[in-house]
Amino acid sequence: MSQPRDPASGNGPPRYRRDRRGRGLRGPLAPSALPISRTRAEAFDDLVLDAVERLERRWHDQLENVQFAVEDVPPPMLLGRDPSEPVPLGAFVPASAGAPAQIVVYRRPIEARVAGADEAAELVHDVVVEQVADLLGLEPDVIDPRYGEGWDDDAGDD
């Protein structure tokens, strides 16, 4: 039987820690291909991608050079000092010298306003439509006629 390592002197063989009773997490709970293994942030990214892909089918030429991004929370400079002002759900950054236009969707404020995945998908879609409308100088219901009314993904896409 080997002797435990004396931490003070560093002598003796190293002591290995292991779970003797088979308890503890030894690996992922589910294979990475299953939806259960995705994080909330990854699932949210997918909602944004779905909304962008839906709009790109109709507005491909106008959105070709636009970058879409997801951030957890808005930067402090976008938060108003007045507590009655709502926290922004998205932002549009116009193109500047050498940098393309960018649309940013803020994950945490959206998640705080919805109760489930369906509501999150609708709100993300509406936020992306609003930001694209700002970019193109159009009304949101021109960008997507189903803006603001909730939509069924299986109903005839444009």
List keywords for this structure.
158 residues, alpha+beta, Zincin-like, three-stranded mixed sheet, 35% helix, 9% strand, globular, disordered C terminus
In words, what does this structure look like?
By secondary structure, the chain is an alpha+beta fold. The chain has a domain at 40-143: Zincin-like (2-Layer Sandwich). It contains four helices and three strands, in the order αβββααα. The chain has helices at 40-63, 107-113, 117-136, 140-143; strands at 67-71, 90-93, 102-106. Strands 1-3-2 form a three-stranded mixed β-sheet. The longest helix has 24 residues, at 40-63. The radius of gyration is 24 Å and the shape is globular. The model is unreliable at 152-158 (pLDDT under 50).
CA-based gyration radius: 24 Å
CATH second-level architecture of the domain at 40-143: 2-Layer Sandwich
What composes the largest sheet? 3 strands, mixed
Q: Class of the domain at 40-143, according to the CATH hierarchy? A: Alpha Beta
Shape, please? globular
N-to-C CA distance: 72 Å
Mean pLDDT: 81
Taken in chain order, the helices and strands follow as HEEEHHH
Spans with pLDDT under 50 lasting ≥5 residues?
A: 152-158
Helix content: 25-40%
Structural classification = alpha+beta
* CATH T-level topology of the domain at 40-143: Zincin-like
User: Hey, roughly how much beta strand do the residues contain?
Assistant: 5-15%
Helical region count? Answer: 4
Task: Output the strand order for the largest sheet.
Answer: 1-3-2
Number of strands: 3
